[in-house]
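Q: I'm writing up a methods section and want to include an example of the input and output format. Could you take the sequence below and give the corresponding predicted structure tokens, formatted cleanly so I can copy it straight into the document?
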Amino acid sequence: MISYRAFTKRFGAHAAVTSLSLDVARGEVVALLGPNGSGKTTTLKAAAGLIRPTSGQVWLGEPPLPAALPAARGALSYLPQKASFPDALTGREVVEFYRQLRSVPAERTVQVLRFASLNGAGDRAVATYSGGMLQRLGLAVAMLPEAPLFLLDEPTAALDPDGLCAFYGLVESARGDGRAVLFTSHQLGDVERLADRFAIVVEGRLVASLTATELKDRLAERGVMRLRLASRPSGLLEAVREVARAATWAGEELVVPGPAALRPRVLDVVRSLGAELRGLTAEEGRLDTLYRELVAEAPPKEAAR
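A: Here is the clean output for your methods example:
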């Protein structure tokens, strides 16, 4: 439904995105992650038809059409990173304007205002809205056309719990209806909860694309078990390292990195050497830790010629 093929965008000497290839299938939710300035917004704007590739291609829909064509743009709904609306209009008037622009049935106005938790504020002027309410209004506008493609740039920024519920509902409904969603976020908790796939961009280059299963496996490898023992029997660390090579002492704790499957074998070794266990904690790998590792491992951008 969304396809980038060697997409490159340069602004003068600056390469915002370089040779990015990525697909988003029908019914798939893909999170685009990366540090500030890594090219995420440029990538979404290219799919929205707001910028043209310097080279490469961006296609939308089935059958695929170049993203710059009006017919392709008509199949998507785009929420920019900073949505702004006329202060003098009410929320309802804003939604009505976009409803008529997209030729959407009139009943959708009430539905999206309610779905975005704006029903009680729909008749208030936009000038009175908080940042979170403006973001919810943006979500309401994005929900209007029930488009087969969603492009959402930082949709959870400034959202309160009601707004987050609306966003989760939007994404889960879109997935269930077989629509494609590509969104950016710095809120890794939202990302891990919602996405089917995780694409990480650093300095305009795609450095990793992981399915939810692949991510789960990568995180499992980064789990850690910590054992607090009454004593250190001779040869304990060496014996544990035959099972878990990365095991080490950290103060009075035996720290054993690795997947959960290793832990029963480590405990068997500890017990076999007569060590008394005083305490045990275990934690799984974290997405934020893996994300930082992938960002740090990314090759440096080549200097512009």
